[in-house]
């Protein structure tokens, strides 16, 4: 096999060395347009996991790296002159130039041909001449661009500018330092990579970079300005550069990683923001996986397919974490006013890879200090602290999220709803929410949807609230009121979600006459008179809900239902006073809110669920969501329940763990209103992390409560918590400890005898 490698960075060199080592008969050639001693950037961070892979694949390289690494455990965070240190993190770094030198030596010893100062031949020639072509030519890969139609790359440029510098001394920890200047916020990321050297990255928003005058400075002047701004962190020392330039980070994603005998590796295939230190790590792991797949698979097509199948989910997970970290630093101004320890905890957990429980294992002393500052009594996890909304005090921060059950008959909740909601109330959550309860027969999503537009329905709901208040005292129960709008008259979810009924349809109404998706019924645009009728339907429903004994009312303005349809520019094409600008699109939902608030008891809280983004071009943006939240808060909303999407059928959500929580975080920070975070929050560790970091006030969980109705009780038991934040019902107390499992501690053999 003849192998061509385009790009002499760590990923390309390591791939070349591995392929040659595994099969010395391979002819492997590396093209690198720069000289051997040229390098950009300074230090490289690798994880223990990556080093373990290197050790197994090539002990020679591992031994050379091991001798060079600088290791440290601490992270220092300096916030408004106060330094907080968190330990137990475990980093290893070395100079990028030394890493390349080790890989150069290894490649030469194995017989890899290294062509420095030489542009690689055109990709078409390489693919015709070589059996395998590895494009490891970085974020600006010309090889990838030559076959853009095959790889279908997406390159997203982000908001911050950064510059890669170095200091001639070693930080004693990974250091984050924040500088608040007259022009805005700058941040320093620094870490040691040798006994006498550290990497220093200075980053700021584009508008800060412009206002501070960096656009007019040359390289030397920029370096001097950065050293002056961060003089305290540097101890008055200078910084140095290496052809350093201010740049924007670019996230690279490719729909495909291979085309014929050409395969992408490292930054050519994907990038992840430097704040989680994973660029070189991913490239080296790519090289390991590619080499392994070539050994394991019967042919090149199978090997390249297996390589992508193995690496893509790992890379996607890393990119999600990197995006969360990147966006945290882009929006760092939201967090500067937080208490200093909470700020530090928020920074440490920004990517969601380090969590409350994980950080407790790494540094219990630091985590306990954050908890004390937050107000957690000793031994109380953050999720079990109380939270007050008007006259309602929730004993903990867990909410059973509204979940449509499609089990009502003529809108009447029955025994199923009693058992479903009653079980979850007994399960310990601070607040249990009903499904969307429809305000009219025509406002149902499906024939199985519950309503509260008749006295019989209200009486049935009273039976459920009485059970909760009697059998689960201290648990709040809330009702979510809504109208299906253009998403009504459809089949039950398990019969065909969002599919129109085959018979028994009812007419639909919406802000504009736009069907939800092809084949859906086209709604009629609401007239002024009909708007008044619907507003009265909401107030009638709210009045019944109050008499039914609900503790909290949530107005459903999300997921493309009627009120949501007014908010989104994708679904509201009206030309009257209820369409056009965001202020006009808000008009009818706010009218409904005001009408409901006027009949809802003053001491009982009201929340509003919104879709903070439509996940579609031209739709509601995160900036719009902040303004929507501000508007509802100004009208008396006590909290905003922050969901996303389900507004248009062609949405493209960026799914992932806790993927919707950044929107809640932003609304809380910018609008100054309490928020409920939702969206793939699946563990009590997630809840503790989000609450303690100050990213949300309450966490709503849906599917975990379907899997385990007693999720909150079990979360308390697993954390060893027995305080007032969660109460086991008297009949269940005997089960408040995890049942014993089968024996797993059988004695091990004392001797192993050979034959």
TrEMBL record:
**What is the source species?**
Streptomyces avermitilis
- Name the record gives this protein: Salicylyl-CoA 5-hydroxylase
GO MF, one term, reads: FAD binding
Top-level taxon of the source organism: Bacteria
Ranges for the region named Disordered are: 732-755
PANTHER family recorded: BLR3436 PROTEIN, NADPH DEHYDROGENASE C23G7.10C-RELATED
InterPro entries according to UniProt? Aldolase_TIM, FAD-bd, FAD/NAD-bd_sf, OxRdtase_FMN_N, YqjM-like
Q: Where is each FAD-binding domain found?
A: 131-319
Report the residue ranges that make up the NADH:flavin oxidoreductase/NADH oxidase N-terminal domain in this protein: 383-716
The record ties this protein, via CDD domains, to: OYE_YqiM_FMN
